[in-house]
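Reopening: structure tokens for the guanosine-5'-triphosphate complex, inputs below.
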Amino acid sequence: MAIQWFPGHMTSARRKAGETMEFTDVIVEVLDARAPEASCNPMIRELREHRQRPCLKILNKIDLADPAVTQQWLDFYNRQPGVKAVALSCKSTADAARVPKLCQPLAPHRDSTHKPLRLMIMGIPNVGKSTLMNMLLGRRVANVGDEPAVTKSQQCHKINDQMTLTDSPGLMWPKIEFEEDGFMLAAIHAIGRNAVIEEEIAEHLADNLLARYPERLSERFGFDTKVMDGVDVIEAVAKRRGCLIKGRGAELDLEKASIILLTEFRAGKLGRISLESPASREAMIRDVLENPVKPRVHSLRSESGETTSHSTKLSNDNSKVAGYDENE
Ligand SMILES: Nc1nc2c(ncn2[C@@H]2O[C@H](COP(=O)(O)OP(=O)(O)OP(=O)(O)O)[C@@H](O)[C@H]2O)c(=O)[nH]1
Ligand SMILES: [Mg+2]
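Re-run output (same inputs, fresh job):
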């Protein structure tokens, strides 16, 4: 089941972003370094290309991403016209302090001794935009939190006489083209809980980790991953951590195990991990184009070995799959 999440407030946020962009000199686009292209909103690129605005791409949360892969992404983005890419952690004062100096050369026409350079921070939810805003201002002007869609409206502040900064709400886009991107976005916690099923996200994350960092799973949870698939990993986590459904004997609580895997991945407990690299992304896109209708049935086995189709479970639970919650 493909993940889509475009809550109501994002329609107005998108319109407002388009309006503000007219009066912006440089777009500071914050991406998640663990999944830079999956977290790169095509709608933001369209808006910025329409207005021909230069862009500083910040691959944020480098403390959680694989350094070698982050370097590959920097090389990838720094080849794009009108783009400068850096990798940093917005939680670090020293890293955040580099941002104004990196933006200035991107708008050489703007003489900031007379007119302040106007920056707008954009990006998908929960990537660290408001954290950056607060760091640059040296005080807490915006709420931050490890939940997507904390910021619901724009706010502009003066950093100094030479620079202003606008923070904006996290923006998703109406249709995520590649199914795998939806799962990566959910794994990094950019998608609201109402639009996802934790077990399914964890299963995809486990598949990704098995393919890219199997040793991290073994180190963290102490099992041998050699003949495992994603579902096996969730079951093994449940066994290792003693996740049992109350009153149901030895039946494993796979939901609880899924949440453990997701939480520990998000907190960096499995080490620094990148969910995609330029090469893996190219291969993923090639695969989708060559096999356009390749239905992927997600199944979580019960202890008895009986298999339940996850897509059936999903389609019967409208509250979980709607993803278009106007009130969110
Ligand atoms: N590990 C790590 N966490 C970070 C970093 N930057 C931000 N965070 C955390 O990421 C979470 C989201 O940060 P926010 O600044 O609220 O993100 P946002 O992009 O403004 O999110 P929305 O307002 O929901 O769009 C918070 O828990 C931050 O503490 C970083 O460099 N490393
Ligand atoms: Mg915010």
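The radius of gyration is 21 Å. The CA atoms of residues 94 and 135 lie 9 Å apart. Marking as resolved unless the reporter disagrees.
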